[in-house]
Amino acid sequence: MLTEQEIKNGRVLIVDDKQDNTLLLENILLKAGYQSVLSTNDPREVLDLFVSFQPDLILLDIEMPHLSGFEVIEQIKSIFDSDYLPILILTAYHDRETRLHALRSGARDFISKPFDNEEILCRIRNLIEVTLAHHRIQNNNTLLDLEIETKTRELHETRLEIIRRLGMAAEFKDRETANHIIRMSKISKLLGVAHGMSEEEGELILNASPMHDVGKIGIPDQILMKPDKLDPVEWKTMQNHSELGFRLLDGHTSEIMNAAKEIALTHHEKWDGSGYPRRINGENIPLMGRVCAIADVFDALTSPRPYKQPWSMQEATDEIERLSGQHFDPELVETFMGVKEDVYNICRRHV
């Protein structure tokens, strides 16, 4: 509920080419307790005054030189993005067509000259109250939209953090570090976008790829923690992590979870069909799986393992190039070679 003082603090702009009329209206409003009253006798000034003064109500004459009241209304509508025009028409015309024209143009009300002082004060008060209530609703809606936006962003960030930590849980179990997740996901986005993915698709692969090895949570510790190379039986068990990850992430309709399960399942498939778990080949392997395969192998080669020393970035790059057309999509390898310096920079920043 608006207080009487809030209404009296409303800003009123008077537009009439007759100075006697503007002085009379100013006097009536000031005596009634309105403090923010401005007037002009030149309708060409209204647009600038509307922007600078931001009136809560305009008392607008119809018949004026240079611009009619209706033309002034059209000017205001051209810059005022609202369905509510705070305009009270002042007119000496009493015909029905003029009144209808005023209302159809967007004016809220009209009053005929000569007007009754008490009547015009009532109409002014009522319209200012409606305008201020309209502003309050708009402000509340804006605040509500901002709050919803904030909560949505927080929910999105929380979900992404859970995804990252779930990926990290699998890597920690495999004696990896959080930096592997960061490097691999950033390289995946870099490579994907360079190869033609949209920025939105790049963000999707960035946020979904941290779960590529989440299935390792289901692999026995004695295999994951073994300091030497795995024997054939152990290696077969290790390969199950792709299917385990797929099943773990399956059953959710969100875009990011669908992308994550696709990556978990396919990032160990090979271009020539010799990969695992399903031995699919070529473009039958989803693009995200092919991109993450290069990013994951490159980072694995350049990272220390209990059974090996890290390769240099040049050695790892040479290996990626050597396996083009066998392990990796040859076109993606070509793209990788074009952005290898950016890949190196990612690795240097996240040691």
Task: Please tell me about this protein's structure.
- By secondary structure, the protein is an alpha/beta fold.
- The chain has 2 domains: 4-145, 3-Layer(aba) Sandwich (Rossmann fold), CATH 3.40.50; 174-349, Hypothetical protein af1432 (Orthogonal Bundle), CATH 1.10.3210.
- The chain has helices at residues 4-8, 19-31, 46-53, 69-79, 96-105, 117-173, 178-194, 199-208, 221-224, 232-239, 241-249, 255-266, 287-301, 313-322, 330-338, 340-349; strands at residues 11-15, 36-40, 57-61, 87-91, 109-112.
- Strands 2-1-3-4-5 form a 5-stranded parallel sheet, with helices on both faces.
- Strand 3 (57-61), helix 4 (69-79) and strand 4 (87-91) form a beta-alpha-beta unit.
- Helix 7 crosses helix 13 (287-301), helix 7 (178-194) packs antiparallel against helix 16 (340-349) and helix 12 crosses helix 13 (287-301).
- The longest helix is centred in the middle third of the chain and has 57 residues, at 117-173.
- The mean pLDDT is 87.
- CATH homologous superfamily grouping of the largest domain: Hypothetical protein af1432
The residue-averaged pLDDT reads: 87
For the record, the CATH architecture of the largest domain stands as: Orthogonal Bundle
* Content-based structural category: alpha/beta
User: Tally the helices: what do you get?
Assistant: 16
Low-confidence stretches: none
CA-based shape:
rod-shaped
Helix/strand order: HEHEHEHEHEHHHHHHHHHHH
Share of residues in strands: 5-15%
Give the count of structural domains: 2
Between the first and last Cα atoms, what is the distance in angstroms? 60 Å
Largest sheet features: 5 strands, parallel
Strand order of the largest sheet: 2-1-3-4-5
**Portion of residues in helices?**
55-70%
CATH T-level fold name of the largest domain: Hypothetical protein af1432
